[in-house]
């Protein structure tokens, strides 16, 4: 097992905090304070922040400081497109290899999601949601594609995190997972792909609600001049 460098460890710690909204969009990041808090020198923190900037999760302003990036809707759309393209392409193969073990794992993920909803545990909701979808990748030996999603889609993940704070959206997600699982059990590739596409595409429709509830989290759209 490869040992992570200090900057890689700091990168992952900060990324997790950004995606979980512990570090909120627009929040200032003080390198000196982070250095004390994490018990490392400033150098690996700077390296980690540069990498997070490449992920569009922080913004570095020369001579002014660094802050957690506000959510850019254009970036979210790109990441959403990547996720939908990857997952819907895998569905036909997953239907062919779908087993009783997959059914039980997905059923357990839905049960965990229901529990997370009942106790209003956002961490549990997120973890169980990702567990449900990850099975599609692992059972088809497409784990690398799941890692690409996790690496490239931090803004999309932040949006999903915010959406789980809204009860109606969470109820819909659980119901949709149950319908998708039924399609997999029936090995209905067409229906499963359709449901999966609609499921992943609904976040685009829900954006207005999310932006109205948390306007401070979102980047102002740029006015394009021609």
Give a written overview of the molecule.
The chain is mainly alpha-helical. The protein has helices at 6-19, 31-38, 42-54, 73-97, 100-118, 122-138, 143-152, 154-163, 167-185, 189-213; strands spanning 28-29, 58-61, 65-68. A hairpin with a 3-residue loop joins strand 2 (58-61) and strand 3. Helix 1 crosses helix 3 (42-54) and helix 5 (100-118) packs antiparallel against helix 9. The chain is globular and about 60 Å long.
Give a quick precis of the structure.
The chain has 226 residues and is mostly helical.
Any chance you could write out the topology, listing elements then pairs?
Elements: H1 6-19, E1 28-29, H2 31-38, H3 42-54, E2 58-61, E3 65-68, H4 73-97, H5 100-118, H6 122-138, H7 143-152, H8 154-163, H9 167-185, H10 189-213
Antiparallel strand pairs: 1-3, 2-3
**Unreliable residue stretches:** none
- Strands side by side in the biggest sheet: 1-3-2
Main sheet summary: 3 strands, antiparallel
Shape: globular
Query: What is Rg?
Result: 19 Å
Give the oligomeric state.
single chain
What is the terminal-to-terminal distance? 52 Å
Helix content: over 70%
- The beta-strand count equals 3
Mean pLDDT: 91
Separate helix tally: 10
Structural class: mainly alpha
Tell me the strand percentage band. Answer: under 5%
| N-to-C SSE string, H for helix and E for strand | HEHHEEHHHHHHH
